[in-house]
Amino acid sequence: MIVLGIDPGLAQTGWGVIETINQRHRLIAYGVVKTKTDRPLEKRIFAIASEIGLIATKYNIDEVSMEDIFFAKNVSSAINVAKVIGAIIQQLSTQNLEVKLFTPLQIKSSVTGYGTAEKNQVQQMVKLLLKLDDIVKPDHASDSLAAAICFATNRSFTNKVGRIL
């Protein structure tokens, strides 16, 4: 199973692709889609969704996992991230891909076993689970890989017990 993980953001949207076979994860690729603040909001959102669509096609994605908005101190930035999430879901829906949303707590819990783990703990577990030499940088790319691992772990559990969490 090839999983695309996404950490949505307006300035930077992290993406990571893993392959999972028998609960073993292998890194395929990762990166960040960046947008410039001097561009109109609509063009930035469109560029992000379009690029994610191209990535999904390039890597022949089977499943998509994306971090959802759970809590935001800045309401206007949360609204913009929600717009990015919606645009990505729309783009991937046109490619017959369903997007599974996970809260940060769910992702952290799935990857580290602890829902309030610190960012560096999540990064270390991503490194360990993907058998990498170094922590993935930038943070948004690492977070996207954590989202992909979360999906793969949950899918494996669902296949074993026969129900969705």
Structure description:
- The chain has 5 helices and 5 strands, in the order βββαβαβααα.
- It has a 5-stranded mixed beta sheet.
- The mean pLDDT is 92.
- The protein has helices spanning 41-58, 75-93, 104-112, 119-129, 139-161; strands at residues 2-7, 12-21, 24-34, 63-67, 99-102.
- It has 165 residues and is of the alpha/beta class.
- The protein has one domain (2-161): Nucleotidyltransferase, domain 5 (2-Layer Sandwich), CATH 3.30.420.
Features:
165 residues, 5-stranded mixed sheet, Nucleotidyltransferase, domain 5, 48% helix, 5 helices, alpha/beta, single chain
How would you summarize the topology of this molecule?
Elements: E1 2-7, E2 12-21, E3 24-34, H1 41-58, E4 63-67, H2 75-93, E5 99-102, H3 104-112, H4 119-129, H5 139-161
Parallel strand pairs: 1-4, 4-5
Antiparallel strand pairs: 1-2, 2-3
Helix pairs in contact: 1-2, 3-5, 4-5
Helix content: 40-55%
Q: Profile the largest sheet.
A: 5 strands, mixed
- Sheet with most strands: strand arrangement: 3-2-1-4-5
CATH architecture: 2-Layer Sandwich
Ends apart, CA distance between termini = 19 Å
CATH superfamily: Ribonuclease H-like superfamily/Ribonuclease H
Overall pLDDT, averaged?
92
Uncertain segments: none
In total, the number of domains comes to: 1
Helix/strand order: EEEHEHEHHH
* Shape summary: globular
